[in-house]
Amino acid sequence: MAISIYDMDRTITRGGTWGPWLRFWLRRHAPWRIVLLPLLGLAGAAYATRIIDRGALKATAHRLLMGRRLPRSLVMAAAADYADKVVANGCFEAALEQIAADRAAGCQLVLATASNAYYAEAIGTRLGFDAVIATPSRWIDNQLDWRLGDANCYGQEKRKRVAAWLDQNAKVGDPLRFHSDHQSDAPVFLLVSARGGKAFATNATAELTALAQKNGWPQVIWGQPRKSLFERA
């Protein structure tokens, strides 16, 4: 069976999804936490200067703007509403058309993203994906903890998880494709190429465009992604 793997932020969606998720949560459940934004600014500065990594930044943002523990029912209801919003207004039409074409062709669809699983899975379900590989959530006593469930699904970590999924679900010779916009997914591009698949630099950054030209990866444009300071993949 053919397998099509897609990155999410700025590949399918018009922009990053983590910052908008936090704003969505603040407006809906914790508007008072806006007073903690200066502390998040400090965490952002620590990330920008490489004192902390992306995973630590995510966890800190969650702790400040969402809280330490949250009931599963509350989180999943909010994630469902947020996913509806993203799918209705936040995706490139050309991306949705390609996903629909792959589905119609009988491809197995896999969403591979660094976004948090609790809302990435809701978006993936609405887009018709068969599997979602994302940054794991940590659930304790049926509550969402502010810490990540495992390493941030980014760069080499995403490659490792995609490879593990393929080892368990793909057969030798299955046609394989991958779409992503960002150079951090170069390890996945190389993995797919090594397995005889085709990797597409999609809505590519300048850095990924250069890598694509060097490695012979086809380029496609589904739209112009929105930029943000800390959501660079």
Automatic annotation (TrEMBL):
InterPro entries the record matches: HAD-like_sf, HAD_sf
Coiled coil: none
Signal peptide (from-to): none
Keyword field contains Coiled coil: no
A GO molecular function held by the record: hydrolase activity
UniProt keywords, alphabetically: Hydrolase
Pfam families per the UniProt record, alphabetical: HAD
Official protein name in the record: HAD superfamily phosphoserine phosphatase-like hydrolase
